[in-house]
Design a protein that fits this description.
alpha/beta, six-stranded mixed sheet, single chain
């Protein structure tokens, strides 16, 4: 089955055609706003992709109703609209992408491929917040986790690179992009991850704060007189690297460090401090780690971030070769020769995982 994969973000939209052998046959990226792109551009890109048999939309959050990916119908769309506030930077863009492609391919079966599905079987200890039971039961409040397709692909690819598929490998995967998260994947199953109820928890990101003391949020709402929307906007869009270095782009942060910027140096130090701690926590969730993986735009391209991160993780058996790290292109092993635990750089291929998800969902639906 040839699957059109649509990955709509707040500032970009990517479409790719994935064949039945997991080969990416064609792909096109658009710089857009809110997941919206001119119909003529999208029409042209999709018409150039021959033999589309199904569509898979990467959707960040399925909420408490959908722990698994699901075929798209009006009920699914209506529900996703109601939970848009759980991922305000992502769900509106996904919904816009769904609407645009439905106009072009109205008779082609489409699946909402949920990033949260990979983490749906998190152990209770990892998924449960210590909050009143009423909140957990009434509102479905739990740790959902995100970047599921990236963590799934990176962990599977790591097992292939180490010639260890199906062996119960303990993999710590670091998806580092404008959004970032770390996951503990044991034998293909997510055991823990850094993002939680929303994509705001966890690591420092491009414009997102990552984890902060909830008491700080309450204090600021009172003393800075901030309402809900103002607080959400500040934590989602004006925090992270942007708040510390004046830019959300890690490339600019690293250039700033070279130029002697104290703000850029602080930004990277805070970023790496949180990242190291979260990698160690993920290893603890599996009682050890067999391989560390870097993926995503920053993970694949920022050798300095990888070097400074692993430098503080020797106690886990990690060490990288400076030469291999400096010249690495995905997919590569950048481990130092004596390191007992390998470190890999893997190209993010969420589209391949989304296509696999589409085939699985459609195969499970009885045909008329």
């Amino acid at each position: 089955m040839r699957v059109l994969v649509v990955n709509a973000g707040s500032s970009s939209l990517k479409v790719s055609l994935v064949g039945p052998d997991d080969k990416v046959l064609a792909e096109k990226d658009f710089e857009v706003s809110g997941g919206k792109v001119a119909d003529s551009q999208l029409d042209s890109a999709i018409n150039a992709m021959d033999g589309i048999e199904a569509v898979g939309h990467r959707v960040v959050h399925g909420g408490p109703r959908y722990p698994k990916s699901v075929r798209i119908d009006s009920e699914v769309i209506t529900y996703l609209v109601t939970i848009s506030d759980l991922a305000p930077l992502h769900l509106p863009a996904s919904l816009a992408g769904i609407a645009a492609v439905r106009l072009l391919l109205p008779r082609t079966p489409a699946v909402a491929c949920l990033d949260t599905a990979f983490h749906a079987r998190l152990p209770a200890a990892a998924s449960t917040y210590a909050i009143p039971e009423e909140w957990r039961q009434r509102f479905g409040v739990r740790r959902y986790g995100f970047h599921g397709f990236s963590h799934a692909y990176a962990s599977r690819r790591a097992a292939e690179m180490l010639d260890s598929p199906g062996t119960g490998l303990k993999v710590v995967t670091c998806h580092l992009g404008s959004g970032a998260s770390v996951a503990a994947v044991w034998g293909g199953r997510s055991m823990d991850t850094t993002m939680g109820f929303t994509p705001l928890e966890g690591l420092v990101m491009g414009t997102r704060s990552g984890s902060v003391d909830p008491g700080l949020v309450l204090w600021l709402q009172k003393h800075a007189d901030l309402n809900e929307n103002e607080m959400a906007e500040a934590l989602d869009q004006r925090s992270g690297l942007l708040a510390l270095a004046g830019t959300a782009d890690m490339r600019e942060v690293l250039r700033g460090i070279t130029a002697g910027s104290e703000g850029a140096r602080l930004a990277l130090d805070v970023y790496v401090h949180r990242l190291r701690a979260c990698i160690a926590a993920m290893a603890a969730a599996m009682d050890g780690v067999d391989v560390l993986v870097f993926t995503g735009g920053v993970g694949e391209n920022a050798s300095q971030v990888r070097a400074e991160t692993v430098k503080g993780l020797g106690f886990l058996g990690l060490e990288i070769d400076p030469g291999l790290n400096a010249t690495a292109v995905p997919d590569a092993d950048i481990s130092a020769a004596p390191a007992p635990v390998p470190t890999l750089v893997v190209k993010a291929r969420e589209d391949i995982e989304v296509a696999r998800e589409v085939r699985k969902v459609l195969a499970s639906i009885p045909q008329p």
